[in-house]
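Hello forum,

I keep getting stuck at the same step: I have a sequence, I want structure tokens, and every attempt I make locally crashes halfway through. Rather than fight my setup again tonight, could one of you with a working pipeline run this one for me? It's a single chain of 400 residues.
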Amino acid sequence: MQSAQSILTSTDKFHIDLGLERTLLALESLNNPQDYINFIHVAGTNGKGSVCAMLNEILCEHFLNSSVNVGLFTSPHLFSYCERIKINNVPITCDDLDKYIKIALEAGEELTEFELLSVAAMKYFYDKNVKYVILEVGLGGRYDSTNVIKKPICSVITTIDFDHTARLGSTIDEIAYQKAGIIKHNCPTVVSVDNKGYGVIKSCANKQNSSLYTVENNLKIEFDGKNNYVYINGKKLPFSLLGDWQSQNLALVLEAVKTLPFKVGEQTVADAIKKVKWRFRLEYDRDKNLLIDGAHNPSGIRALRDFLDKYFKNEKKTFIFGCLNNKDYEKMLEILLNEGDELYFYEFDYPNALKYEQLPDNIKQRSQKTCDPRKILDEKQNLKVVCGSLYMLGKLFNAG
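Reply #2:
Ran it on my machine without issues. Output:
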């Protein structure tokens, strides 16, 4: 039997073709397993992965000593497709992934890579008696294959900014309209009042008679170079996710938890946010003086640069950067680099990875191409920052 890996990466599957019809038809042939699961649906430009990770950790903690199963569907993966589908924080096995991708393929031969994964996940969660699933949108929302669900128990929309403009639109309002497509009739929606697309989201929520729960970014985060804390209701709590912007993500999570059909205790939340992990999202190794971040668009890079300027202002910085060629890499590098910063460009092996030759001359003049970033990480003693693409990080650290 052909493996899931070979099927998903085959040339006729490995592309994006937004639309719901193929996924709906495939799921219908499987008796619509998605209709028997309670979903928390999460869309947004930046932060949706962190929000999903926190929600998942909170629900897993809440149902820890019960028979209730909690599922998580995210993208992209770092090292293996199995990372994308989890139950109670345990990734799907390679054998089960092979099995369910084959089921999805038989249900719809024309499905793309992400559609196959979406169908496989829905069927897998149903077969494993999963009651609650945190479901991350792949791209956009309105025409994303995850949007086949009819009645989520909550929809969450994180920050909105410019990314994938060729597919989602060239204005914030156009992008917000695509993200707001996950809002369903009579289902609660959570969003920040500071969201750039708030007006469009509010309008879409009103049209769907969706109760709109708004949050303000009033949580304070402290990082002392070693430990990270957040203040919630006057209490100083350990918080495992770095970055001041995580305060807004956490605020969305706390509000979303309030809308759920069961009560989650404060201690459960405290225990969950202390141990939640979201790999390569502002991950700092103090011993190696190494900071790894999956920022892959201008707004994400801006947040990273702000963090560096606040907490590592006086340190010399060596950047290792690589990204996909459909990203606004010139803007990203313009934001990222300050005078005196050192840049190594990593040309990694991945479809559509940006090549060194595509860089503008002014960037080439201040950078060096590297095929062996690990050597640089080992040799440099100053702060090393690796960023630009989650796909690149997966390639670079796969052997480690």
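The mean pLDDT is 95. If your local run keeps crashing, start a new thread with the error log.
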